[in-house]
Amino acid sequence: MNKVCLIGRLTTKPELRYTNSNLPYTRFSLAVNRNFSNSQGQRETDFINIVVWRKQAENVCNYLDKGSLVSIEGRIQTGSYDGQDGNKRYTTDIVADNVQFLESKGQSQARVSTQDTNSYNYPDAPVNEVNIENDPFADFGDSVSIDDYFLD
What is the pLDDT of residues 35-46, one digit of tens each? Predict the structure, then answer.
């Protein structure tokens, strides 16, 4: 089984590209914090290459920006190519089957503007804090209905 689940933040604004057969895709790096601290007491971050295809790639490029918090479900794909120096290079990417947006565009923009005013260094970013006074479903429009069955 080849299945990967990640939660992290985009390190750059994704750009939509097209294959020769006009198939849309995007590539970006996802910063994922490790669950443990190193010997200096700091949490390290892994930067993982992600590839998204078709309509999902278009949505990622239209609605996400640098620093957006997302959940990625997909699979590992390896490859290789010959570099300009003649040496073989190996690649490892996550091909996303599902990209979940974990914060609204407003929350993402507010976080980025706060970081800009604080001269915030991205790799040491703390885990996203949720302010319960802000309604995380405000941008969803319609009301949400929950059956009593789920309340037990």
Answer: 888 888 888 999
Work out the average pLDDT over 84-94.
94
Distance CA 40, CA 62 (A): 39
CATH topology of domain 4-151: OB fold (Dihydrolipoamide Acetyltransferase, E2P) (2.40.50)
Please name the residue that has the structure tokens 């590839």: 51
* DSSP codes joined into one string, 67-119: T-EEEEEEEEEEEEEE-TTS-EEEEEEEEEEEEEE-S-HHHHHHHHHHHHHTT
**How high is the pLDDT of residue 110?**
63
Domain spans of the chain, in order of start? 4-151
